Request: fold
Amino acid sequence: MEKLLDGLNRPLPVPSNKLHGTLTGDVVLLRYITKYDNHYFHIIHKWLQEPGVFDGFLFDGDIVSEYRLYDDFLNYAAIGLVNECFIVFHNGIAVGFIVLVENHRNSVCEIGYMLIGDAYKGNGYNADAVKIITKYAFRYLNMNRISMDIISTNLMSISSIKKTGIFKHEATKREFRMVDGEPVDMHTYVCIRRDMEW
Reply:
């Protein structure tokens, strides 16, 4: 594996739409990540270890090494569990990532993971990234339903999903996960294609 980049605040080049596929929103840009972009996994790994990030965010509760993170992404992608992962950019700097898990047979998908680095929170990047990927899923992937599960203690993600104005609370799974030894609820938010204002 090539040497990984150091530092979260180092500006990273944003490739052209023609070469790599990017999605542009009001304040952020989503850049599709591939198996050749292993330097981004170093940054993602650091984000996952920041204070306040739910320990069970990824890979069954273990914050794995960046090399395992890279390998698992490739393995999961190979069997279709994680279909598309995007790095979120603002002004050429990587500020977060978002993952879309797709079920084309049923025309449904789930925003599997969504995270903005601590240094960049509170700027509307999460909400903009969700709106971008939702429009992408409806318009280009022909999805009918998009959902996202958020634990009740993740108040920032709940706030972000509400700020989009397009997701509705559908259900609550009571005491669905354990956080710091305590059971917490899991909320499901959903956006249906016919409810979108195009």
